[in-house]
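An example makes the point: we let one protein speak, the chain in one-letter code, the fold tokenised, and here it is:
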Amino acid sequence: MAVQFKDYYQTLGVPRGASDADIKKAFRKLAREHHPDVAKDKKRAEEKFKEINEAYEVLGDPAKRKKYDQLGANWKAGAEFRPPPGWESFQGGRGFRSGGMRGEAFEFNFGGTGFSDFFEQLFGHRARGPRGGFGTGSPFEEGATAAARGRDIEGEIMVTLTEALRGSVRTVTVRRGAGRAARTDRYQVKIPPGVGEGQRLRLAGRGEVGSGGGDSGDLYLRVRFAKHPDFEVDGGNLIYEAELAPWEAVLGTQLSVPTLEGRVNIKIPPGTQNGQKLRVSGRGLPRRGGGAGDLMVVVRIEVPARVAEGERKLWEQLARESTFNPRQ
């Protein structure tokens, strides 16, 4: 199936040779600007945020970026695109194609999961074969009369941290079949509060139709957290990096830090060290068994790259008078 090519470098506004640090910096800047929680036009911001996330999902992952770069630099955004032969051997194609009775072909393609057709074509999952294995062989044979359960099908769904916190209901489409026989089904998918990265959401009986009166398979959507400009996720904990000036670390200070439910003030104690972790209890993601994870504030002490003449004199005075020696 032809789809529109996505120029992820263009989406993030970085050159193809950009460093990992530059790509991360560009993502954070754009994600903060277009995050649905802060934008006035939430619908438009949500779509832009998905595009930015998808671009970073690929360019921020060394393996995916390498594979994407193998497509070459001559593609233009919006151009018709078909994956090159053999691409499916990397990680499956978009949806799944299997043989059916009398050699019929069944295709499954997902929509509304937060990923574009282009991403799903290149990096999506395929349907699961019998007993949970990925496969392209058909469970059917011409003339078979025994009941056979339909295959399970599996896709991925992008879930924001806010959805993981509060829960949501999303509409997902599954396009089945090919050509004139194709049809599109729409399902309401409940994302429960406390859903975890990699967790599978099951829609019973929404997979491939069985044969000979057999039951239909199930539809599974594997949760992938959308990247967040401020937080990394560690289980139920959120990790936030806080930059401090040297004097703030030495003397201590009050610092305002973000959470998923607004900002909170925390105390930075005197003598705080670079890399030190400060815990804000209960400000992480909800846990499925009850309670919530924590917000872990990781301190990064930043040194000014340039100083004015007056500032230089103060640093020189400090160097003369201080008895501190980090090498002893």
In short: The chain has nine helices and 15 strands. Residues 1-71 form a domain with the Helix Hairpins fold (CATH 1.10.287.110).
